[in-house]
Design brief:
Elements (H helix, E strand, L loop, with lengths): L3 E4 L5 H14 L10 H8 L7 E6 L12 E12 L3 E11 L8 H15 L5 E3 L6 H9 L5 H5 L8 H7 L3
Parallel strand pairs: 4-5
Antiparallel strand pairs: 1-2, 2-3, 3-4
Helix pairs in contact: 1-2
Amino acid sequence: MDFTIRAASLEDCKDIARMIRELAEFEKVDEHVKVTQRDLEQDGFSKNPFFHGIIAEVPEQLRTKEGHTKIGYALYFYSYSSWKGRSVYMEDLYVMPEFRGKGIGKALMSKVAQLGLAAGCNQFNFTVLEWNKSSLDFYLSQGCFDVTASMGYHCMRCEGEALEHLAQP
């Protein structure tokens, strides 16, 4: 399949927002998406971005029936492990359903790994839903391991009123 992987630009935010909604629908959590195109523009393309992105794109002749040529993306950011040092965290990895199984997801993931290594990272972290067996199997086949299963760590979150309460002195 003919496709390219490139850095996301400000002009891609409309398509990234579309694919974020598609990913949320796939994960059965679309009611949780609050991020807008404008949020993506501000948070990813300001002087100090909160995230970075890459886009998978196909040529015009392979566009979707809706006319999309941007058919996948990954969002990532750099973090720090007090045990291992620099790390990269992949927030999202998504490929439109009709383009799956063609190496595009692997290419996106490989590019995030390459960017992490180039930045001096020695760890690549991400989450996957427990029911997404095909993705779990793929990640395991790539040499990744399940931190929850092997080390017992759970991903925790605090948001909304609980976050406001936690921030009180």
